[in-house]
Amino acid sequence: MGRYIIRRLLQALLLLALLSVGMFLLIHALPGGPEQVIFNPRLSAAGRAAIRARFGLDQPLYVQYIRWLGNALTGNFGFSFVTNQPVSDLLVERFPATLQLFSLALVLALILAITIGVISAVRQGSLTDYTLTTLSYFGIAMPVFLLGLFAQDIFGVWLHWLPVSGSATLGYSFDPFNTFLDRLEHIILPMLVLAVGFVAGWSRYMRASMIEVTKQDYMRTARAKGVAPVPLLIRHALRNAVIPLITVVALEFGQVAGGATITEGVFAWPGMGLLFLDSLTNRDFPVLLAMLMITAVFVIAFNLIADLLYAVMDPRIRYS
Amino acid sequence: MDISERLNVTSTQEEIEPFLEVTPALVQKRRSQGRIIFDRFIRNRVAIVGAVFLILLFLFCFAGPIVTTHNQPDQINVTDVSQTLAGPSWQFPLGTDDTGRDTMARAMAGGQVSLLIALTSMLVAIILGVSIGAFAGFYGGIVDTLLMRFTDVILSVPLYLLLFVLSASFTDGTPRSVILLISFFGWQYAARLVRGEFLSLREREYVLAARTIGARGFRTMFRHILPNAAGPIIVNATLLIGVNIILESVMSYFGFGIKPPNSSWGTMVSDGQSTFDVDALLLMVPALLIFFTVLSVNLVGDGLRDALDPYMTER
C-alpha cells in the first residue's frame, strides 16, 4: 500500500510538471500574450527593448520557464496586469467565497442524493421511483447556466424573494444576526443551482449502487438473522452502497478551485470563478496562468485522495 | 426399409416445412443484428419520444425556413418602437426581439448553427477518439502509455477553465473555430472507451485467426475488432451530442464562442436575459429549446445503450 502511494505521488508530480510546461507554453502562445498587453503602443523601439529586458521577455523560453517555475513554487505568481496586486493575494482573497459556496453545495447535494437514491432504490418501480428518476433526467439535461438564469428570473425578478447577485448587500452594515440572514439570502440560490447539477447524476448513481447492494447474499443473511428493515438498510446496505458515491464526491471536490465558474458568472458571486472570467475578458495573463495551475494541483491532489479513500473504505480493494 | 422411410421422411428439402407447421411458436423468424437492436429500441417508449422530438426539431430548424415564411432572422420587421418586444401574434408566433427581429426565424437560424456545431464536433471527436483509442488499445505498451498520459494531462484541468481560455484566444466567433475547439475536448472520453474495448477484444480468438491468415494491424483493427466495439462507441457518440450542445451554449452565453453577427441559441439566451421582465419569451424560447434538445438526446442515448446491451434479456 505504501509503495502504491509513493508511485501515485511520483506520477502526480510528473503530471504536474508536464502540465506546468503545457500551461506556460499555452499562455505564451495566446494572441495578445504577455508582450502585447504591457506595451504602450506609442513606445519607441528602445523603450520596448528596455521593458522586455526588465521583465525577462528577451530570454530564451526555457529560461523564462525556469524562472517562472521557481517563483511559482514559492508562491510568487507575479503581479496582475490589471490591478498590479500580487496574484497570490488576489487568489487568497477570492478563495474563501468559492470554498463556502462549493462545499455547502456539495454537502447539500450529497445529503439529497443519498436520500433520493435510497428512496428510489427501496421503492423501485413505483410511482415515486418513476417520478424521481424522471426528475433526475431533467436535472442532467438542464445546463447549469440555464438553471441559474431561471432561478434568478423566477425568484429574483418575478417574485422578488431573493437577491439576484453578489454575496452581500452593499453598503449596509447590519448587526450580526441580520448580516447572517443577508448572507444566507445571497448564498441560497447559487448553492441550490450548483447542488441540483450534482444531485441529478449522483442520485442515479446511488440508486444503481443501492439496488446492486440489496441483491447481495449478506443482506439476505442479515434479514434472516432478524435485523429489522430500517437498521438493515442503514447499517448494512447504505454503508456499502455509499462507498462509490463518496469516491465520486471526493473527485468532484477536486474541482473546487474552478468548478463553480459558471454559477459564479451567472450570479456574480465574488469567488475564484468570477475572477477567472474577469481576467479572461481583460487578458490578465498572470492571474489566468496561476489559476490554471492551482486548479490542476487541486484536481490531481483530490484524485489521489479519492483513490486512497476508496482503499480505506472498502477493504476488499488491494493495490499492488 | 431404411431409416428415412421408417420415419416417413421423404426428402431433405421437405424435412423442414412440416416441423414449422407443427410448432410455429417455437421458431423465431431470423432477424439481422441490426434489426434486433432496432426492435429493442422501438419498444422503449421514452427513447421513441426523444427520437421523435429530435426529428421534429431537425425539421423545424432546417426545413422550417424553407417551408414557412420565417426565413429572415436579421430583418427588422417593425416601423416603430412600440412593436418591438411584441408577444405572439399570427405573423410572429414567438414574438419579436428588442430590435424587431422575428424570434421564430432567429430560433431556426440559431438552431441550425447550434445543431451543426454539435453534430460536426461530435463526428470529429469520435473519429479522432476512436483512432487514438484503437491504436493505444491494440498496440499497447509505450504507445498506450504516452497517449493516455497525454489525455490525463488535458483532463487534469477543469474543463470549463481550459475551454474558456482557449476560446477567448483562439476562436473568432465563426462556427468553424468553435467546432475545432469543442472537438478538442470531446475525443478523450471516446479514446479511453475504445482503448478499453480494444484491450479486451484483442485477446479474442477471431483476432488470432485473422492474424493467422495474414491480416496485419490496420485490417485487424478496423475490419475485425472495431465492429464488435461499435456498441459503446455509438452510445457515447449520442451522449456527446448533448454535451457539445451545452458546451457551445455556455461558451456563446459568456461571449467566448459564437459572436455576432453569427447567432446561436447561446447568444440568444444572453440577449434575452436582459429583457426578461418585459418579454419572457426571448429568454424562454432558446433556453427551452436547448433543454429539450439535450433531454431528447440523452433519452435516445440511454435507449440505444439498453438496446445494444447484449446482457439484457428480451422483454
- Uncertain runs of chain A: none
Oligomer: heterodimer
CA radius of gyration of chain A:
24 Å
State the order of secondary-structure elements of chain A, H for helix, E for strand: HHHHHHHHHHHHH
**Total beta strand runs of chain B:** 0
Distance between the termini of chain B: 48 Å
Report the major sheet of chain A.
Answer: none
The helix/strand series of chain B, from N terminus to C terminus, equals HHHHHHHHHHHH
Biggest interface pair, counts: A-B, 41 and 37 residues
- The number of helical elements of chain B comes to 12
Strand content of chain A: under 5%
Terminal Cα separation of chain A, in Å?
Answer: 7 Å
Tally of DSSP helical segments of chain A: 13
Point out poorly predicted stretches of chain B. Answer: none
- Secondary-structure-derived class of chain A: mainly alpha
Radius of gyration of chain B: 26 Å
Mean pLDDT score of chain A, rounded?
83
**Helix share bin of chain B:** over 70%
Shape of chain B: flat
